[in-house]
Amino acid sequence: MELFIIQEGELVKKLWISILAGLLVFPMLLQSPAQADAPIKIVIDGVPLPTDQPPISVRGRTLVPLRAIFEAFDATTTWDKQTKTVTATKEDTTIVLKLGSTLATINNKPVILDVPGQSLKGRTLVPTRFVSEALGQEVVWNSKARTVSITTSGGKGGSVSPASNVVLQDVSDSGDGRDLQVSFVRAADESIVDHYRVLIVKAGNTLNLSSAQQIAPSNYSTVLSIGANPAFKLNAGSRDISGELIKVNQPYIAYVLAVGKGNNTSALSNSSATLTLVNNIVSAPTNIQVNDVGDNGDGRDLSVSFNKLPDESKVNSYRIFVVKAANYTNFNVAAANAVSSSNYTQVSKTGNNLSQVLASGSRDIDGALIKSGVSYRVFVMAVDSRNASNQVLSPASSAITLSTTGISSFIVSDVNDYGDGRDMKVSFVHPTAEANINQYRIMVVPTAYYSGFSVSEANNVSNSNYTAVSTSGSSTNQILTSSTRDVRGNLIKNGTGYQVYVLSVGSNSSANVLSSASSVITLLTDFSMGAVSNLTVSDVSDNGDGRDMKVSFTHAVDERYISKYLIMVVPTSYYSNFSVSEANRISSSNYTAVSTSENSTSQILNSSSRDVRGNWIKEGTTYKVYVLSVGSGNYSGSNVLSQASSDITLSSKTPVVSVTNVTYQVNDSRILARFTKSSNETNISEYRVLVVPAKQGFGLGDAIGVTASSYNSIIPNGTNPVITASTIDVNGSPIIKGKKYKLYILAVANNKGTQNGGLSDSTEEFEL
């Protein structure tokens, strides 16, 4: 059942012609000659009623469009598809009309229609005369003017006074109707005002009462005639009277139409002053300064300062973007708005110029952790929370490359079984800038006494309780001595948990820098942790994910203290090397665990496998693979990392397409082969002509195994080739008269193919 509910009328709501919902499906076989004349108009109490389907004349009776009448009066109708019946209700009156019938009822009393309703161009039309008879309204047909005039009961009433003091204001920066607010003073007497219509008109155009009353409902906004003088804010979908969405940089004026109740005439206000909507753009921060303020090798080394905006009324916060200097010319507002929230630093607005030291986990806009040795430029944007399109990006800062006096690639391992300091090896890479470093001090800290170890504590350690290392060379690999002591003065020994720190010593103690702690190490006799060997990686499939990668390795010789192996896929673009300390920090979702069962592993990864940075393994990215041997029991935490595999870049491979239409031609003792080249030659290195004894079985594997002396070949050149066959068959025997042969063409794959080649169908048998 279809339900039509009419909520808003025009001047004459008492005339609810809509009650007569004909919806009568009539095949439109009758088409009056009058329809060729000017369209028939409808006028209600002197006001034209616009319709998209004009009335028509059928057998001397005028039929009017049902929907247009509905929109003019408050009425409710329901349509029953099964019985093809329309029921109309208005207050205490009910009318029922059935399709194809001239009989209708008004409050259950029968009424005869002269002409049944009919459907024309998707609009239902009903006889106007029935409106007059049903509701007692005066309906007059003017044949000369071709006009149906309807006069409501009681005729015209009073005149509504117009709204006044219409004012337009720009109240927002959304770039649409939400920016526009209309205020006005209501009519002096609202007792005869049904509602107001706010009409937005492009400046330079004028509006009169007649044209204002004919504007479509979708192109004005309605304000009820209750309450105080309104300040009415439009919405994003609001349109001007021409149907165009309201927008910035367009001058407008506004009118207000006061719509009279019943038969009271409407009134149109004077226009407002002209207003052009303009978005107020947020200013760009200025004076962007960057400084290297630490030696942590991460975001804590970078300080960013800038001048706050003079007017922060439209600013919600500021965003700091760190961009690799090589790419900064491509960074603009659109790119800034697209950066993930994890890849910029948000700063709350304050009353002062801002200076922000970034955090250790701060990343550049590409998602890479900020680190020393990389050149960056910094941008700052003031964030307008209401409209991102208003935001403006600051100029780029000067370039900055963070340096550090701290060490890197810090590893501590158990290398012997003396039961003293000779079992401990300390390795680290020196910083690139050592001009202000006098020496390094290796400090062994017993974990039972220190939950943390600070630079001030390190500065106070006696020189007998650390190991000094010079700055010569680019790295240190130091095995401690038998007399080495921890920072509390005790000799280093088995069974004690230690963490090791390295103090970079400057010209004065205030310039000293302490490294992060190593992993906990407990020296043990009969050290049995070992790395895997024979690590190989291969591309085995074409799924475009981890299923393409096969990792094979031989397990450690002694697995008594190894709980499992972790396969770690490392993108080479982010790691020039990969250490055991980095491996120990990798999330469990970013490696593949393998048990210690069997002597070796040959593991194809799965579709959900990720690299150590958390990204899906995929084609086109170059990786190295490492395997971490994870210690158990007394060796828990004493993990061992394998050597890196060779680089591997997964690639898509496509099968070789065999040639077609192979034919032969025997010319004296020569055999010529002709064929249609493969449809895709991108992965074909050559074509080979193979002459095979007719009774010999022959397949792709046989074809690939034929020695070079037993075939002739040609390099693909994009044309259909002709090749002279070899004078010997694929077995190396001379081709002789009186013996039957077949001819095959082998398309040989280059390294892009998943097959070794594609073998054609054979020709028919032939002989010399």
Automatic annotation (TrEMBL):
Domain Copper amine oxidase-like N-terminal: 43-150
Pfam family, one: Cu_amine_oxidN1
Annotated transmembrane regions: none
Domain of life: Bacteria
Protein name per its UniProtKB record: Copper amine oxidase-like N-terminal domain-containing protein
Organism from which the protein derives: Paenibacillus borealis
